[in-house]
Amino acid sequence: MELIILTVHLMIALALIVTVLLQRSEGGGLGIGGGGGGGGGLGSFMSARGTANLLTRTTAILAACFMATSMTLAILASQTTTSSIVDQTPAVEEPAEPTAPAAPLSQ
Question: Which ranges of the chain would DSSP assign to H, the alpha helix?
Answer without folding.
Answer: 2-22, 48-79, 85-88
